[in-house]
Amino acid sequence: MQLKDPVVMKGIMKRFPGVVAVNGVDFDLREGEIHALIGENGAGKTTLMNVLYGLYQPDGGEIYIYGDKVSFSSPRDAIKLGIGMIHQHFMLIPSLTVVENVILGYEGVREVEPLPLNKSAKKIRELSERYGLKVDPQAKIWQLSVGEQQRVEILKALYRNARILILDEPTSVLTPEEVERLASTLRTLTKEGVSIIFITHKIKEALKVSDRITVLRRGQVTGTLTTNEADEEAISHLMIGKRLGKISTIKGERKDKVLELKGIHALNDKGLLALKDVSLEVMGGEILGIAGVSGNGQRELAEVVMGLRTPLKGDVVVDGVRVNGYSTGKVRRLGVGYIPEDRKNSGVVLNFTVAENIILGDEENPFISRNGFLNYNFIDKRAREAIYYYNIVTDSPWRSAKTLSGGNLQKLIVAREFSRRLKLLVASHPTMGLDIAATHYIREKLQEKKKDGVGILLISEDLDELLMLSDRIAVMYEGKIMGVVDPKKTDVREIGLMMAGVTPS
Prior knowledge:
The protein is built from 18 helices and 22 strands. With 505 residues, the chain is an alpha/beta fold. A 6-stranded mixed beta sheet has the order 6-7-8-3-9-10, with helices on both faces. It has a 6-stranded mixed beta sheet with strand order 16-19-20-13-21-22, with helices on both faces. It has a 4-stranded antiparallel beta sheet with strand order 2-1-4-5, with helices on one face. It is globular, with a radius of gyration of 25 Å. The protein starts with 6 loop residues before the first strand and ends in a 6-residue tail after the last helix.
């Protein structure tokens, strides 16, 4: 660590009420490198970078930019010194053009009337050609793909002469092909002297794109390694403090169809067609993965199966029973479990206790209730077992669910659904927001359920997860099934192209 490096952070502290989010962190960024900052959700990665970008003021520590000690009161101060941040959720106005978004709020054009749109568009074209960030400056943001919108965010930073780029979980909404293009762009930028901080929780990604990796756990640095000396096992150990074995793929005994979708058409909440002639089947003892960039009909697909959304056309058949028009409760009584995408609004009742949420939907179980009376001893026992086995962080099973973090709410939902006798499980993003150990445990449990003959519809944006667990993968794009592939015989690039709407040849 040398003070003349683009970024040197020493002993950074950041507290929030009841939480020390960043605790005495040292971090540095060298000229022309990609430095991955990796850790679990809540490890302090984004908080640390928000301090560097001026969004938060530190409670302790020092920051040096190219050897000069600095103090930022807002992002404007950081931008003036050549720091740009591309947030996980893009900061773009959909109704404006690319060029309008790029120059919006930029001091260099603030006093000029009229706005120099032609001059700015020319500069944007030059930057896009120089760095391989192809985008039409005159296009409206709403007309662009997610990958193109990310390029606009990077161009916005480069337009402001950023020499230090912070990217927060930049691949979370990209197809594999877009991830490859982003990695190539970042390498081009570093050759031009730009230094990059790459925030991620994906170990494979960090190893692929970075020169060095710093690992955070509970607000503290547990290690900094060069990528050449790092491997997945070493990084996961630094992230969670223990080593995890590999998940063994279990071959389930394929049984009869537990789910069949026939020519399903359905609208989304805006009244637009979200599912277009979707036909699928799931057998007992198999995992059918659903791949696709978020917003391509996955949520509507799960809701149609669960009776939460009525299809315009087509049939939903669960274990041989046509369930069109069935309530969710009636669908669940056929042996269907559900891990929803929206855990707070659809997965739990926040004002109920942890124990009450554990038995939700299973109230007719004679062990839980009889003659209108609940068996609190049994409920308490089941809840305590779930808390123990799924590591749900709470001091009591009778604590309100609204006191749990997002990750612990997810564990609660998974524990409840896995405790039921199932024929079919609809699992939307079951490991979202979970730490490595909990993710590992749930993936193993999915394999066990498959072995027991349960059919699983697994919806995930984590392609590695789908490739690891699925027997078949159906790829969705704009509400259509682009194809169903065997993950053991299919190239990741082929799946990525299908996710982008390219029909396999």
